[in-house]
Fold this protein.
Amino acid sequence: MLRPMTGKVEGMDRISKNGPWRFSVAPMMDWTDRHCRYLHRLMTRRARLYTEMLTTGAVIHGDRARLMGFDAFEQPLAFQLGGSEPRDLAASARIAETFGYDEINLNVGCPSDRVQNGAFGACLMLRPTLVADCARAMKDAVSVPVTVKCRIGVDDQEPRAALFDIAEKALDAGADALIVHARKAWLKGLSPKENRDVPPLDYALVHELKRAFPDAPIAINGGLATIEAMREQLGFVDGVMVGRAAYHDPALLLRVDSELFGEAAPLEDCFEVVEAFLPYIEARLAQGERLSSMTRHMLGLFAGMPGARGYRRRLAAEAVRPGAGVDVLMAAVDEVRGAMARMEAAAAE
């Protein structure tokens, strides 16, 4: 159960509106690739976007152009790093900065088996001094902001003690902002998917953290699915980070610029989003990409609208076929257009 939300920080609305972390889309493995980020940027110019997590080993030894390349249109864009060796994190942060990323983020929250085997991600909640060493090494290596994304604790840790310890040490080491997923992570007994839902949210603890560190930018993550809920949180913290809600119902992003920043939305509706995305899709198809690599991020675009089920079904079934082109996408969109036209005709009778 959530604790009651009390004790707003004086001046928070002013601070939040001017901060770079006011609204961001969370880094999500296998989801927030460059195609996804380009799509999201079409819908919001003000959101801060994040890459999928990449380990220091991949950055240092992998195919950097393939793993780290992005379109300048995606910016402002943050690069999320996974690792626990300060020297490797510093080297990786330096490489990421040369690619032009606007922020380097240290993952201290992912609970997957992969990060547990590598002793990083949420495991680092148990080693706050090491987190500070990592943040300091990254700060010394780059000129762009270095941030930390963490949980409120893991396993049997007492959340307040764990979160405040990590926060104090990371901020003392120079971290420019903290992004807090307001749940514990259970390294044993829960799957990564269950860790996104089962541990209870504790927004009030993150609000308390903000009151304790009023000058540090602090954003909150976890369970936020509506603009109204996000706006409420912005009365307590500097920013909100949204993950699955933005991915499964991307139309939500069309409201961000107008309702959270007071600026005009870049596009009117989801039909305009498709039209705006077409040149990008056509260019990637010409480079040999499969249509499904891009359209898989669009399956939720018309969520809740007439014909959305037919749109999803058609796109999921046909976009994976070899040689599939933009005609497949447009035929899927016609499922929505047709359903809307039939509904309007029925209403007019």
User: Anything to note?
Assistant: The radius of gyration is 21 Å. Residues 1-7, 11-16 have pLDDT under 50 and may be disordered. The domain at 14-261 is CATH 3.20.20.70 (TIM Barrel).
